[in-house]
Amino acid sequence: MTAGPTVRVRLLVAYDGGGYRGFALQPGVPTVGGALAGALERYLRHTVELTCAGRTDAGVHAWGQVVSFDARADVDPGGLQRAVNRALRPSIVVRSAEVAPERFDARRSAAARRYRYTVRNDPVADPFTAATAWHVPAPLDLAAMRLACDPLIGAHDFSSFCRRPPSDGASLVRVVRDARWVDLGGGMLRFDVEASSFCHQMVRSIVGTLVEVGTGKRRAGEMAAVVRARSRSAAGQLAPAHGLCLWEVEYR
Q: N or C: lower Cβ tally within 10 Å for the chain?
């Protein structure tokens, strides 16, 4: 860390997660956090400790990731943004950089997070969307998938959709404010979901289960029972990581 007066810096970051093993630092493997910290430290000439709004998994993308850290009080946010973008573009881009209130914390200050998951529903794959959308060739019943979203809204224990954390006492209750499918046309579908927070693999598990509803492997009416089961074995397949994007983070 740096000696002397510091300020809290807030970054809005977008990235293509395809070439990274997630956001969190991992020794010996490429991560978004590792690449970002390295570029920041070369510019600032001191170490940084990054806090992010959501620790995205390997292969997951972001348009609205928020990162906070402390830097010397004389930091130039504009110069920092330009330097990091020169070093990391196009796979990682700082969309904005600013000095934030001293108590701002990218994770703890967040009130809600919004994710988007994109599905290409067409018999033929599209090479131009292959890196950011899950190709599902079988016909999907969009009306059934929309109906199956209703039981997700509200405060529930989402154990059926979450990878169990190491701490057995950790709560998997989450408050989902919105969950809906959007027809983008041309065979492109998007699942939008907003919650106070998400547990590990929650969105991908939900999408995988909803797609099973769409293909007729499950009925829409089964979703409420899946939520109540509180067992990962009750839910469906895990959707591929590359279709998921952390879209936006809302702050108090």
A: C
Task: Identify whether the C-beta of residue 235 lies closer than 8 Å to the C-beta of residue 226.
Answer: yes
Same domain, 94 and 136: no
Neighbours of 104 (CB within 10 A): 16
Catalytic machinery residues: 57
Burial of 235 (0-12, 13-18, 19+ CB in 10 A): buried
Q: Looking at the whole model, is its pTM more than 0.85?
A: yes
Per-residue pLDDT reduced to its tens digit, 143-191: 999 999 999 999 999 999 998 766 666 899 999 999 999 999 999 999 9
Tell me the C-alpha to C-alpha distance, in Å, between residue 174 and each of 9, 24, 100, 198: 29, 22, 28, 7
Residue 75 is part of a domain; what is its CATH number? 3.30.70.580
**Long-range contacts from 87-90, C-beta under 8 angstroms, 24+ separation:** 87/39, 87/42, 88/35, 88/36, 88/39, 90/16
Shortest CA distance to 239 belongs to which of 124, 100, 128, 145? 145
Q: Which residue is associated with the tokens 């093993």?
A: 21
Same domain, yes or no, for 74 and 118?
no
Written in H, E and C, the secondary structure of 82-149 is: HHHHHHHCCCEEEEEEEEECCCCCCCCCEEEEEEEEEEECCCCCCCCCCCCCEECCCCCCHHHHHHCC
> Is residue 247 situated within a structural domain?
yes
